């Protein structure tokens, strides 16, 4: 418990200001600093909580359950950095296959005229035409 009550309220306010839904807590300990985050996010929000020590998590969970926010916590035991690295790797691998498959399907589709333009993370533009009707596809993968 190294977070002050004021700090917790400040973090709570910041999360509400940006309408945060998902967040992370690196260094859970007994969850004292996580509580104001859990109260700030919506019912279906999630906190990925990481700590190298699971015993303290289990201790804190008793209190967190009483506060009715335990369902918002996804706890992972271990060093935070490798956990986050693995998540990024999984994310990239997951979407890479999808985007490659999509690009292949668009490339062989006679209804798609030419353009497959990746404009940013998860966004692809394609120009199509079908029986004289031209259209612009904006394919958006929500991250
Ligand atoms: C000062 S306590 C955290 C206090 C908590 N945030 C609070 O204010 O109530 C630090 C916690 O970070 C954990 N920790 C330290 N290094 C870590 C790492 N690399 N990955 C995950 N957890 C770590 C420790 O096990 C400890 O429980």
UniProtKB/TrEMBL annotation:
Signal peptide: none annotated. Keywords: Methyltransferase, S-adenosyl-L-methionine, Transferase. One of its GO terms (biological process) is methylation. Gene3D superfamilies: Vaccinia Virus protein VP39. PANTHER family: CAFFEOYL-COA O-METHYLTRANSFERASE 1, O-METHYLTRANSFERASE-RELATED. Belongs to the class I-like SAM-binding methyltransferase superfamily. Cation-dependent O-methyltransferase family. This is Caffeoyl-CoA O-methyltransferase. The lineage of its organism: Eukaryota, Viridiplantae, Streptophyta, Embryophyta, Tracheophyta.
């Amino acid at each position: 418990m190294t977070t002050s009550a004021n700090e917790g309220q400040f973090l709570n306010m910041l999360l509400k200001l940006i309408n945060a839904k998902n967040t992370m807590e690196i260094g859970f300990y007994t969850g004292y600093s996580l509580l104001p985050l859990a109260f700030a996010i919506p019912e279906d929000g999630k906190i990925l909580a990481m700590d190298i020590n699971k015993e303290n998590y289990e201790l804190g969970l008793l209190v967190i359950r009483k506060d009715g926010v335990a369902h918002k916590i996804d706890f992972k035991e271990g060093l935070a950095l490798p956990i986050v690295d693995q998540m990024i790797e999984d994310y990239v691998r997951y979407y890479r296959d999808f985007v490659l498959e999509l690009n292949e399907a668009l490339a062989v589709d006679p209804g798609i005229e030419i353009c497959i333009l990746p404009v940013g993370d998860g966004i692809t533009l394609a120009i199509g035409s079908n029986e004289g009707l031209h259209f612009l596809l904006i394919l958006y993968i929500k991250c």
